[in-house]
């Protein structure tokens, strides 16, 4: 347990991601993988450090996760089962959708954290029920590590958050062009891009995140994105999430999202 000076109480309202199924002593265990922006994100690290951690090596890199206490439920056949929620930072969601190895890593990490917290021994024969979560994910009060915010050089922040947008009518697309300093092909697999109808989040290792939240007030948008016409973008239609594509222009150090 961390000392009180390094922890804080927080309210989580987790969003369902996906559900996997394991067993312990013949009892089914449903594990809800969920997302919440309040859970601390992993620390910034180079792509090779993250890759070593995914392969099981002790690279010093870690992924915070909030694990609930197991609760009783029943499966489709009415037999007793257990349900556990594992909640990660929302920035990890996008990579799960495009990187099967990353998804496998988060599942194994969830299993390990559940075993460490509950003393359950979970089977690695994993099932994938076609549900986003077993039961509803209720808001909850949790204790989180009160991590210091990383110090960021002003020049780097300005460089990373430089972005612009445009539209095209044939086809109907909104194009968001984001500058990513020191972009390399090796860096791309370690980045996380999350696109929602009114929000875009880009997390790049060792760089501040880009968070374009069009649900924010005009004043907030003007303050956060003073060099971009975010308010005018807010007046556009929602992003077309289902048909969106991302284009990495490595030679230019740019990511272009077409939505």
From TrEMBL:
Top-rank taxon, per record: Eukaryota
Lineage: Eukaryota, Fungi, Dikarya, Basidiomycota, Agaricomycotina
Pfam families: PIH1 (PF08190)
Family: Belongs to the PIH1 family.
Domain PIH1 N-terminal: 11-146
GO annotation terms (biological process): box C/D snoRNP assembly; rRNA processing
GO CC, one annotated term: R2TP complex
Source species of the chain: Armillaria novae-zelandiae
Protein name: Pre-RNA processing PIH1/Nop17-domain-containing protein
